[in-house]
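Subject: mismatched residue count in predicted assembly?

I count 648 residues in my input, but I want to confirm that the predicted structure covers every chain. Input:
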Amino acid sequence: MGGRATLLDVAVAAGVSRSTASRVLAGTDRNVDPGLAKRVLAASERLGYRANPVARALRRQSTGNFGILVPSIRNPYFVHLVDAFTQVANGAGVGVVLADSADDPDVEAQRLEAFHESFVDGLAVVPTSTARSGAAIHRAEERSQVIQVDRWATGASSGFVGVDNDAGIDTVLTHLRESGRERTVYVGAEQESSAGAERLAAFRARARAGDEEILLPHFSTSAGREAAHQLLRRDTLPDAALCAADVLAVGLLSTLQKEGVKVPADIAVTGFDGTDLLELVDPPITALRHPLHAIAGRALDMLLGTEPPGLVRLDPELVVRAST
Amino acid sequence: MGGRATLLDVAVAAGVSRSTASRVLAGTDRNVDPGLAKRVLAASERLGYRANPVARALRRQSTGNFGILVPSIRNPYFVHLVDAFTQVANGAGVGVVLADSADDPDVEAQRLEAFHESFVDGLAVVPTSTARSGAAIHRAEERSQVIQVDRWATGASSGFVGVDNDAGIDTVLTHLRESGRERTVYVGAEQESSAGAERLAAFRARARAGDEEILLPHFSTSAGREAAHQLLRRDTLPDAALCAADVLAVGLLSTLQKEGVKVPADIAVTGFDGTDLLELVDPPITALRHPLHAIAGRALDMLLGTEPPGLVRLDPELVVRAST
DNA sequence: CTGAAAGCGCTTACAG
DNA sequence: CTGAAAGCGCTTACAG
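Triage response: the counts match. Full output below for your records.
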């Protein structure tokens, strides 16, 4: 607003050419006479000069910004992921543009398309659906760099960085069994994400006699409550509930408590993700915590070209709280 | 990646000048021969042409994107606000860039500064501190359009759109009293936001004998739990707890329940904001819901210049749930 | 209605 | 080490 100073203004004020002023200010090239450099810096300071990012991006053919597309910003887990990505990105001097797929592959395809109207060099995407997100992601890859994060979709050939769900399930189950729990119910969902499918498969591979599953239509608090009601209808309760998502654990625990069940005395409850929700209730819930900063960092490295795109899985960490 | 088609490519393919191609594709000017227009459209389609947004922005001196800066994306209330703003903005064809102040006025000042390196025409900001955010916001206003949302800071002269906290407190208190509650404890925080100060003032203006206050160091779940412990130490409980934020209500209710207090039989609990957290616990919590889409809409109108910047306060709506 | 030309504000070979 | 010039890809007065 109101005549923002331009590079030419600075150059004129410092008595040099735009080339020289640019070399000093953009730091592209160190070969500038120190005396001139000082004059340019002084003029720039005096005029309150800031390089126009749009002009710079046009010339450099790169904005230095990246997008992140998540299934839903209402999901606290993705908020944490976005937060981690933003922190890592800002630390590396790159900006982040956020978008939300509304948990819908069609909206997702639309957002992917909209990113081309946006000012980003590439995109980190958490696919909404293993089966139905691949095509649109593949199309986006033809236009710019795309890395999948946390979940993958079939047909999208880009790099992937996520958590090792198999190792995660193993860690939680071992924790429950070592603390004496003998009958674990896995509370998960019949859902479209690769993460959900991997967790269920990992549990099944390790299930023993007495273990069982409750599969709900989706990952949500109300689904967790529904699972609690299913358990309460039975004669005996299992002594551990391994929930495949934090929201499930919170809903389950909250309803069990309201009906007089003691956690962890009667039943241990665990979550999966490591969101703030776990500390919202009393007792706080034991859960895996995903290494989100590391995940974000690797994804950004691939986006920046520092690391070749590939398949990366990082181990989650168990955080023991009062619910087990 | 890989030779994206340019306007010139389209023009050549259609056998027209760049001027004509631009007029057709950018929709700037309708005065184009229909025959030529058809050829341009066909060529554009065939080549998969998308206007380069950076070049367009440089020429137009406007990106069509706006930023939103919130105190913390970890706070579910701000997530809802950002979500509403994004939906409204996308509906109007404008993009949104998100940033986070980490609840710190210094970081906030830094982010405000960083937005100038970003690709936005203006900025919606939720100040972290009434007293300490004004200067940096005022500085940002000299460079681009800035509107304050949800909270205001002294010294920032921009427009403001938020909720009517006085009307909100009145609505909740009336609801509690009409449902027979006689001794209400206000659970709030000594904090720096204008919203917190307004809510407390509104409660004090309406308090009766028997009503009281618990003021905590900040708005958080653990503060809500601390409030519950303070109440539990007393001989008698008040029959209603009016919490000035959803997180306080969730923490309070959760700990009261764990200690055997019945909600709402023994005590009614209300929240303030309307986040998803309210439905996380059992019973779900009665609370005000802020008209976030309307707030976002008015803020965007001011940013776009459709509406002159001014002071706007909108009424929150009471959503009654099982906790009262 | 259409095209040649200017110009948005930068950066970067290219000469000197 | 420095500057004149080209050019990133668009849009838009300006002539015609």
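The CA atoms of residues 215 and 291 of chain A lie 26 Å apart. Marking this ticket as 'not a bug'.
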